[in-house]
Design a protein that fits this description.
- Helix content is about 30%, strand content about 25%.
- The chain is an alpha/beta fold.
- Helix 7 links the parallel strand 7 and strand 8.
């Protein structure tokens, strides 16, 4: 795998707000701040894990990177930059229209969370995998058929199954079809949005190992979105922890997993089950008090302060910046060392 350490995608002050309409005249009455000013780099050849509770904005970040939010929510407000470094220069894909984005979409693909909902049940596997080739390449029919067979073999499926329909496959096999579709156009970056959360544990391991093998062979860069920290620690070189639309900690996966600094990261990791009962007995379970605030009405200052065990009154006044703790670790809390 080619790891250069150079950024392939740079997120700068990304904001994604969904307006809420109401009243007699259905005017805008509020905004859901799903992502509220985050910045990070995705390095070439790496797997960057993005973790957090449901509703923290992880999936929204992935969809902002591939610029499909406006297609699903026309009123969405997207701010900041998503800088994609290509061989022909750097472009901001967050502010592109559909026509301009089409050229770059083949370079950044997505594996969706639900293998049952992300495949068209009316199309055969061959047609599903062929669709990106029809849109983004000039291959003739014979070349497309050869490419489809090669892709299915790469993800561990029999090319003879290409004429079957999605309902004839198991969940793990369907997710492999989704992976083959994502690989069809030789992308540089793949956004994997909780690709194993809907699968059995035994199948999860197979799909994750498959993704790692493909990354090594094809030199792919992954943004791996998940809520299971043990899965992310296994596959990622770096981990980012999100809470309520903000990044609270970034660092090498072994650092974040074995020595978390931010109070939220500590609580999140304390909930991960350990296979060794002796190890579990020596780890303190952190129970957070209070409910998760809604992104519609966020707390002032630090978004975690209403549940934080070390919060101070000043935490309500300012949003803490990410501070360098050495070794590539950044933590958004002034009270941890």
């Amino acid at each position: 795998m080619n790891k250069t350490g150079k950024p392939v995608i740079q997120i700068r002050d990304l904001k994604v707000h969904f307006p809420v309409f109401g009243g007699v005249f259905l005017g805008k009455v509020a905004e859901v701040k799903a992502v509220d000013g985050i910045s990070f780099d995705l390095l070439e050849g790496e797997t960057l894990g993005l973790v957090g509770e449901s509703g923290c904005g992880k999936t929204t970040v992935g969809r902002a990177i591939i610029n499909i939010l406006r297609s699903t929510a026309p009123d969405v407000i997207v701010g900041g930059e998503v800088l994609f470094h290509t061989d022909n220069g750097t472009v901001d894909v967050a502010n592109m229209n559909k026509r301009r984005m089409r050229h770059y979409r083949s370079m950044v693909q997505m594996i969706f969370q639900d293998p049952y909902a992300s495949l068209n049940p009316r199309l055969t596997v061959a047609r599903i995998v062929e669709e990106p080739l029809l849109i983004h390449t000039k291959m003739n029919k014979a070349q497309r058929e050869e490419r489809i067979g090669w892709l299915l073999e790469k993800v561990g499926l029999d090319p003879e199954q290409a004429q079957r329909y999605p309902h004839e496959f198991s969940g793990g096999q369907r997710q492999r079809i989704g992976i083959a579709r994502a690989l069809a156009t030789n992308p540089k970056v793949i956004i994997a949005d909780e690709p194993v959360s809907a699968l059995d544990v035994s199948i999860q391991a197979q799909v994750i190992n498959q993704l790692q093998d493909l990354q090594d062979e094809l030199g792919l860069t992954f943004l791996f979105i998940a809520h299971d920290l043990s899965v992310v620690e296994h596959i990622s070189q770096r981990i980012e922890v999100m809470y309520l639309g903000h990044i609270v900690e970034i660092g090498p996966s072994d650092m974040v997993y074995n020595d978390p600094r931010h109070p939220y990261t500590k609580a999140l990791l304390s909930a991960v089950p350990l296979p060794d009962p002796k190890g579990a007995a020596g780890r303190q379970r952190i129970i957070l008090t209070g409910d998760v605030p809604t992104p519609l009405h966020k707390p002032s200052g630090c978004p975690f302060r209403t549940r934080c065990p070390i919060a101070k009154p000043i935490c309500a006044e300012h949003l803490p910046p990410l501070e360098d703790h050495g070794g590539g670790r950044l933590v958004a809390c002034p009270w941890v060392k």
